[in-house]
Specification:
42% of the residues lie in helices and 26% in strands. It has nine helices and eleven strands. The longest helix is centred in the C-terminal third of the chain and has 24 residues, at 203-226. Bound molecules: (R)-mevalonate.
């Protein structure tokens, strides 16, 4: 049996439908050209260790072992190992270029990379989904599975929690977006719990908002497949408004959206769980101006083309 193996996982950008997706509304998501690459070595005995490394500087970003049972990262490692059932101990080094907790799917990419390496080592490919789901339950609480789907499959697709076929690919021309890390983020599990608490107090209103997000997502799928960027941009703005109504935006996220629109972006919204983290803007022909304006404000920003 091999003693070491590698695995990869992708970051993600939710274009439409975060939070509502937890309650069964379809969402649209794309794999990012950013991700995690794990090198996993089997050990004779535990505790298992995990080191996150910045691939640019080769510096450690975080280190833990399974004995740090109070740390989410150590809990996630234990959950991944438990999904493989065997009494197995590993040393996992994960090179990750997705900012942590920014809404870009770093936790799912990390879990997917480790789980795939373990699956290769133990010849257990069928355990990968359960391993990533167990890890995501620690970071996300009631996770819809959208980050896991993007981390494992990449591409541009519609995701529906609980559907017979949760992943439906979307065929569209490449979508030019710019992404901005607008300030410190909040843990996803905390944001998902916050929405659940407000939803319990305002159930009929929240169900209206979820239906609105569902309608936006359905229109967005058509606009995406037609490459109708002006229409798509307006739908992004509407979805951002709905996320504000759910209570997950912040002053910085709203400000970053306004800056992008002021520099010619066709639309902008927060992405992921909110409470800080990332926004993205639709920027055909305007990516440089938008990214420059965000950077001038002191935020990290970059442009990518999604799908295509
Ligand atoms: C987080 O990336 C997306 C949320 O909708 C949570 C989830 O779907 O698991 C906020």
């Amino acid at each position: 049996m091999a003693m070491s193996a590698e695995g990869e996982g992708r970051g993600k950008l939710i274009l439409f439908g975060e939070h509502a997706v937890v309650y069964g509304v379809p969402a649209i998501v794309a794999g990012l050209p950013l991700g995690a690459r794990a090198q996993v070595v089997l050990l004779d005995e535990g505790p298992s260790r995990l080191c996150l490394i910045d691939p640019d500087s080769d510096r450690p970003l975080a280190v833990c072992d399974e004995s740090h049972a109070d740390q989410p990262l150590a809990q996630a490692l234990s959950a991944i190992l438990a999904a493989f059932g065997d009494e197995v101990a590993v040393d996992a080094r994960v090179y990750i270029d997705i900012p942590a907790g920014a809404g870009l799917g770093s936790s799912a990419a990390l879990a997917a990379a480790i789980a795939r390496a373990l699956a290769a080592l133990l010849d257990r490919p069928s355990a990968v989904q359960a391993a990533v789901a167990a890890s995501e339950a620690i970071f996300h609480g009631d996770a819809s599975g959208i980050d896991q789907a993007a981390a494992l499959s990449g591409g541009l697709f519609r995701f529906t929690r609980g559907a017979d076929q949760p992943i439906r690919p979307i065929h569209a021309p490449g979508v030019p977006v710019s992404i901005c890390l607008a300030g410190a983020s909040a843990p996803t599990a905390h944001m998902v719990r916050g929405v659940a608490a407000r939803r319990a107090r305002h159930r009929p209103v929240f169900e209206h908002i979820e239906r609105l997000i569902g309608a936006v997502t359905a229109d967005a799928q058509i606009a995406l497949s037609q490459g109708d960027w002006p229409r798509l941009g307006e739908l992004l703005d509407i979805n951002h408004g709905a996320l504000c109504a759910l209570g997950v935006s912040t002053q910085d996220l709203d400000h970053a959206c306004h800056i992008a629109r002021g520099c010619g972006a066709l639309g902008a919204k927060l992405t992921g769980s909110g409470g800080g983290g990332c926004v993205f803007a639709l920027t055909p022909g305007t990516s440089e101006a938008v990214v420059e304006a965000w950077r001038a404000r002191g935020w990290r920003a970059f442009s990518v083309v999604l799908g295509g």
